[in-house]
Amino acid sequence: MQIDNRRMTRRRRETRERLIDAAYAVFTENGIRAARIEQICDRAGYTRGAFYSNFASKEDLFLAVYEQEMDARRDRLAKAIEDILAVEPPDRVADVPPLLARIAVLFMDNLVADEDWYLLNAEFFAEALRRVDLRESADAAQGRFHDDLARILDDALARLGMRLLVDARDAVQVIVSLYQTALERALFEGIARPEDNRYVTDILPRALSGLIAPAGETPAP
């Protein structure tokens, strides 16, 4: 019986993963509102029954897509920071702004994919703001991602001998807002490379530099 349960768990996990992957493709092609559950099922190779045994609605499926994408971005940011710090550990405060710029460029090394995701993300959260039934789950999913980013940020700054002057979650809100602006400008202006996006290379590092100080420095009254 235990073997059967393990097989069922594995089978269900594989079904969910295929539905999530198919949903990302269909959402990207058609937008979330225009995408139909039948299209997602056809792309994944499953029936509507398989869909509804795993997800309550199309919006529920998008939240699963969102969590998967946010996990990937969290891991990508952590790797970008680790790669930079492994090669160039800074020993002066003056080293931090250009270091942050290099991390931002590495993090946004695939703007095309992120532009697709930005459009889906903006569509979903606009819908969540309109619908009270979606607000709580959307806010909770976003909050978990921001908590992950806050932990990564705190850890990276500690390794640099720095600390935040504001709450880590507030700093993350600033960073995410600038990140979204960078993607908007990339879309409007046709910026293909993050190295050419001044929000990535200049404004974001400057903004974050204003939120940090050396770990041993006493804040001004």
Features:
221 residues, mainly alpha, Tetracycline Repressor, domain 2, 75% helix
Number of helices: 9
Total number of strands: 2
| CATH overall fold name of the largest domain | Tetracycline Repressor, domain 2
Helix content: over 70%
How many domain modules? Answer: 2
Give the SSE order as H and E letters: HHHHHHHEHHE
CATH class designation of the largest domain:
Mainly Alpha
What is the rounded Rg?
20 Å
SSE class: mainly alpha
- The general outline is elongated
Which architecture of the largest domain would the CATH scheme give at its second level? Orthogonal Bundle
Uncertain runs: 1-5
CA-CA gap between termini: 66 Å
The percent range for strand residues is under 5%
Q: pLDDT average, as an integer?
A: 84
Strand arrangement, major sheet: 1-2
Notes on the structure:
This protein has 221 residues and is mainly alpha-helical. It folds into 2 domains: 1-55, Arc Repressor Mutant, subunit A; 58-214, Tetracycline Repressor, domain 2. The chain is 75% helix and 3% strand. The chain has 9 helices and 2 strands; from the N terminus they run αααααααβααβ. It has helices at residues 2-30, 37-44, 48-52, 58-87, 96-107, 111-130, 132-159, 168-189, 198-209, and strands at 162-164, 212-214. It has a two-stranded antiparallel sheet with strand order 1-2. The longest helix has 30 residues, at 58-87.
